[in-house]
Amino acid sequence: MIQLTDIGYVKRLMSAHGITFQKKFGQNFLINPAVPERIAAECGAKPEDAILEIGPGIGTMTQYLCEMYEKVVAVEIDRALIPILDETLAAYDNVTVIEGDIMKINLPALFASHFAGKNVTVCANLPYYITTPILMLLLESGLPLDNITVMIQKEVADRLAAAPGTAEYGAVTAAVQYYAEVEKLFQVSAGNFLPAPKVDSAVVRMHLYKEKPVKVKEEALFFRVIRAAFGQRRKTLLNALSAGMGDFTKSELAEAIARARFAENIRGERLSTAEFGHLADLLFDIKHP
Ligand code: SAM
């Protein structure tokens, strides 16, 4: 395996290809081999599974994924890195590198042509500028994913794994926990990257529910309730919903909150995903008597 975590090697490789780190693409490459090896090993996939990697960079974690799993597809936005990946991954015949933006690529087509009949896990050291949009895109895609295991900014990891009523709990937590069981695996300090980012990171594994434990009558309404509840964090749930859901009168909202048996002055941040689901269903019933 090429030592892609060796700083001297990385710098020589990049200068030989005439490229520099692109801040706009969130490029912070791993320089401690123990980290990509551990992320790859703990991503939740089985040896016969396929992996979708987002942002392979120069192929540091991709090598470990190729060693451990049957098939790897890696999507990289930075065109300048493609020739480097051709070189660093030349030893593997189970990898396909696709140049593209994960936010724009046709994921159903990618799955149909590369992952038919396979269990798929996403494994990535994500660019921090776009972490939440990528996660929501993957979760909302409805694509048959087993796990999404990602290294992200530590604060975001804390939010995704947060329990109701804590300071870290927010709209994204409730939404992500609707789709998946979230587990924070381990922390990675900034010194493990080149260049070192300003913040520490953590690895989170999301195991997607095959059968969602929270079933709602209308998903769009459920997500609207969550967004409105956290839109005005300092307000009570009733006032926050009243400010964010103009199609319900305040008395309709108060009726649903009472029917759910929540305290009159409860704040949205105390509600679990299941409780948001229950509340959304009560609102649905009010509109569809
Ligand atoms: N996997 C490498 C590692 O761990 O050393 C690099 C990780 S670096 C934090 C993020 C990578 O994602 C970069 O290679 C960057 O060019 C790529 N990237 C950024 N935005 C992307 C996007 N929208 N689609 C695909 N790749 C992207």
Which SSEs are present, and which pair or pack?
Elements: H1 7-16, E1 29-30, H2 34-41, E2 50-54, H3 60-68, E3 71-76, H4 82-88, E4 95-99, H5 107-114, E5 120-125, H6 131-140, E6 145-153, H7 154-160, H8 171-179, E7 180-188, E8 193-194, E9 201-208, H9 219-231, H10 237-244, H11 250-259, H12 273-287
Parallel strand pairs: 2-3, 2-5, 3-4, 5-6
Antiparallel strand pairs: 1-8, 6-9, 7-9
Helix pairs in contact: 2-3, 6-8, 9-10, 9-12, 10-11, 11-12
Bound molecules: S-adenosylmethionine.
Structure overview:
The chain contains 12 helices and 9 strands. It folds into 2 domains: 7-208, Vaccinia Virus protein VP39 (Rossmann fold), CATH 3.40.50; 219-287, rRNA adenine dimethylase, C-terminal domain (Helicase, Ruva Protein, domain 3, Orthogonal Bundle). The protein starts with 6 loop residues before the first helix and ends with a helix. With 289 residues, it is α/β, with parallel strands linked by helices. The mean pLDDT is 96. It binds S-adenosylmethionine (SAM).
How are strands sequenced across the largest beta sheet? 4-3-2-5-6-9-7
For this structure, what is the CATH homologous superfamily of the largest domain? Vaccinia Virus protein VP39
Proportion of β residues? Answer: 15-25%
Q: Which class of secondary structure composition applies to the elements?
A: alpha/beta
Mean pLDDT: 96
Q: Can you count the beta strands? A: 9
